[in-house]
Write a structure and sequence with these properties.
48% helix; two-stranded antiparallel sheet; alpha+beta; 409 residues
Length: 409
């Protein structure tokens, strides 16, 4: 019995040892990093990530406090996050670059189109624009445009009929040419000359209270025109200029030039020098009254002169007064009226006016009148009929009132 028990006990012990030898022992990674450290390769980052993932999953059931998990998982998350961020940055920068390139191309295209449009507009408007720029800043102007530039001012289908041989309408503030008819034709200008006479006197800053006595030298020996201003009559320079501008008094205008420093010759030089400074290169003066037929200009040049005269308050006041009284040398009171019927009527808002007439020049008229709240320079030269210049002015005003406001400069 004892032998049987001992045999069975031995058999059991032998079987247990054999079984234990065949059963694999559990794997406990005491040094997991050293044990599974991969060999260096071309892409170490990729292999490191894959190995750490494999190691991290096995020891979870063995030891939760092991440091394998944090050391393994952190690099994975950081690497993945960094890679994702870099990817987003690359994509964003690429998209931004594309967007910027598109915007730049669009801006460049817009600039090119604007330049083309501007060049086209300048090509179309070159003629009136250059005249306008000279008119707006007459003192610093370049030479006046050639006649072809002026005569090319387009006339609309509804342009008014004018008796005047030459005419021009311009915005006094902007210098924009609104209407023109033979605006570059050179013609005698008669007493329109007196506007230049007044500007030269005012530019000299002479005393307006200084007395001036009418002498025999002031008598017209060119056209033999009559005058109510008797020789020997003494007036202030103020009253003398008033009669010259309002009633176109020839003796008064001549006395202003005669009493200029240096005399009449110096005065004529000053008139032509002033004309050049205004860009009036197609204008010449030989006397201060306009009785000399060689005093000649163009409608385009006279528009510049009228625009310049419009800046003198005294010229605006004297030329638009309806009447003025003086005392002659014989003690008689003389009553003078404005030579422009439109000023005398008072229906228009006229801010400057000057008429002129000699046989060679025909009936002439220049004005600055408000139309649609815009000051318009109007020049009419060589009208045949006595009332032709007044009819032309009315026709132009009616035509301007029918135009859109933005077309009036």
């Amino acid at each position: 019995m004892n032998k049987v028990v001992a045999f069975l006990f031995g058999l059991v012990c032998f079987s247990s040892q054999s079984f234990a030898a065949t059963v694999p022992k559990p794997y406990v990674p005491d040094e997991p990093v050293m044990a599974v450290k991969p060999k260096p390769s071309v892409k170490p980052a990729t292999k490191t990530v894959s190995v750490v993932k494999r190691i991290a999953k096995k020891p979870l059931s063995v030891a939760k406090t092991s440091k394998i998990k944090p050391s393994a998982t952190k690099p994975v998350k950081l690497a993945q996050t960094t890679k994702a961020v870099k990817t987003k940055i690359v994509k964003k920068s690429t998209v931004t670059k594309i967007a910027l390139n598109s915007t730049q191309r669009l801006n460049k295209y817009s600039r090119v189109q604007k330049n083309k449009s501007r060049q086209l507009a300048q090509h179309i408007d070159a003629k009136p624009a250059r005249i306008a720029s000279r008119a707006y800043a007459p003192v610093k102007t370049s030479p006046v445009a050639s006649p072809t530039r002026v005569t090319n001012i387009p006339l609309t289908s509804g342009s008014p009929f004018l008796d005047s041989s030459s005419a021009l309408v311009m915005n006094a503030n902007t210098g924009r040419m609104i209407f023109g008819k033979n605006a570059a034709r050179r013609t005698p200008i008669a007493s329109i000359t007196k506007l230049m006479t007044a500007m030269v006197v005012l530019d000299a800053k002479l005393s307006m209270d200084q007395p001036i006595t009418i002498s025999n030298a002031d008598v017209d020996r060119v056209k033999k025109s009559s005058s109510r201003l008797e020789v020997g009559t003494t007036l202030s320079r103020y009253d003398t200029m008033w009669l010259a501008l309002m009633s176109s008094e020839n003796r008064a205008a001549h006395s202003l030039a005669r009493t200029y420093p240096g005399g009449k010759a110096a005065f004529i030089k000053a008139m032509n020098r002033k004309a050049r400074s205004l860009g009036m290169n197609h204008t010449v003066f030989y006397d201060p009254t306009g009785l000399n037929k060689d005093n000649s200009s163009t409608a385009a040049d006279l528009a510049l002169m009228v625009q310049a005269a419009y800046r003198y308050p005294q010229i605006r006041q004297f030329s638009t007064s309806t009447e003025h009284d003086i005392i002659s040398a014989s003690g008689r009171q003389l009553h003078y009226k404005n030579s422009n019927a439109l000023v005398r009527e008072g229906a228009w808002d006229i801010e400057l006016s000057k008429t002129g007439y000699i046989k060679e020049a025909g009936r002439c008229l220049v004005m600055v009148a408000d139309v649609q709240n815009k000051p318009m320079v109007m020049v009419f030269l060589d009208a045949g009929a006595t009332s032709g210049r007044i009819s032309d002015a009315r026709n132009i005003k009616n035509w301007l009132e029918r135009q859109p406001t933005n077309q009036l400069g």
